[in-house]
Write a structure and sequence with these properties.
alpha+beta; BirA Bifunctional Protein, domain 2; Rossmann fold; five-stranded mixed beta sheet
Amino acid sequence: MKTFKMVRGMRDFLPEEAEMLRLIEDKARRIAQLYGYKEIITPVVESYGLLAAKTGEEVRARMYAFKDLGGRKVALRPEFTASVARLVATTMRNEPKPLRLLCIGSLYRYDEPQKGRFREFWQSNFELIGSEKPEADAEIILLTNSLMKSVGLKNYAFKIGHIGVLRGILSREGLAEDAQNRALQLMDKKQYEDALSLVKDAGASEKCLTLLQKMVKVRGSNIFNVLNEMKKLVEKYKEAYEAVNNLAEILELISEVQKLDITLDAGFARGLEYYTGIIFEVYVPELDIALAGGGRYDRLVELFGGEPTPAVGVAHGIDRIMLALQEQKAPLKFQGEKTVMVIPVSEALNQEALRISEILRAEGIPVEVEVMGRKVAKALEDANRRGTPYVVIVGERELSEGAVTLRNMEKKEQRTVKIEELAKAIRTELH
C-alpha cells in the first residue's frame, strides 16, 4: 500500500496545537471586538494581477500562481491587504469611514521551509481604512501591543521606521518608483551595500549616497534622540523631513498612552511595495523572525479603482506567536469547559447513554460517549488516561429510578443523581 507524505512546507496540527492556534485566533477576535473591528472573509484564491500589483518582487516570485480551468491566471493569497483593498474599492466603497476590518485565515508563499517559516501560515489582519491621522497609526500599534500582551508573550519589542523618509530622499534624487522598490527590498534584507550600489547606478548623487549610508546606521531605543538625529540628516529634503515629523507625532501619541519597548530604525524597510508611511515589526529574543508587521498604505485602494483612501494595517503571525509562546515555555492553556464521559454498563443501554448525552449537550456541557464497546472498568481507565474529570455511568438499576451514577475521577468518589438534576450537578462540580 502506498504511503503518502505531507507536501513540503505544509503542516499537520495535532489536537493540542490546533486548540492553541484557535485560542490565539479567539484572542485576536476579542481584541477586534474591544477596538471596534468587524470581521470579513475574503477568498483564498484571487486574480494574479490583484495580488501581484504591489506586493513586491520577493512575494511575487513566491506566489502559488496557476491557470484555472477557465484559463484565468490566479494565485493563492500571499497576504490579506490586497483583498481588503479590492473589497473597499468595490463592494464597500460607499460605506462610512473609517472602516475597521479584521481577516483571519491561512496564506501561502513558496518560501524555503525553516523554523517559523512555512509555505502555509496563519495570520490575523487588522485594517483601519479612511483616516490619514497619526491617531490611526497609533491605534494599530496599540492594538498589536494589546494582542501580544493578551496571549502572554514576554519581552516582545517593536521595530519602527517610516518608509516615507527613505522614499522622500530617493524621490528628490529623481529615482523612478521601480528603482526605489528594488532598493528598499534590498534594504529590507539588510543588503545595504547592494542597495547603495543600485541607487548609485540609478543616478543618485554622492550627497544622497552619503546620506543613506548615515541613515542606515541611525537606530536606537531612545526614540526622541533618534528622531532628532533623523531630522538633522534630512532637513534639506522636504518630503523626508515631513515624514520624520509624522513619525514623531505618532510616537508621541503612543508614548503618552503606553510604555512600549521600541527601537527606532531610520534605515528600516519592508518588502511590500504598497507602504507609504510608518512601518513596524514585532520581535521576541527567542526568534529572529517577525511575529507581526504592518504600516501605512495610502494609495492601494485607489490603485484598485477606488477613491483616494488613506489606510493603515497590521498582520499578526498566529502560528509564529504560537511558536514564540512555546519557545518561552508559556503556551496558552485552553480555558473551555472540560468534557464529561457517559459510559453505559452494557450494549443494551447504548440508546439511553446517547439520550442522556444529548440532554447534557443541550445544557451546554461537552460530552463524549463510550463507543468502543468497552467494559466499565476499561472505559474508566480510558477516561482516567484522558484526564476526564467526571464520568456518568448509565446502569439498569439506577435507570429504573430515573437516575445515573456521577463519578468524580480525581477523588474516586461517586453518587447517584436524578437525570433531571444531572446537568446542574455536573455544572456545580465543574465550577
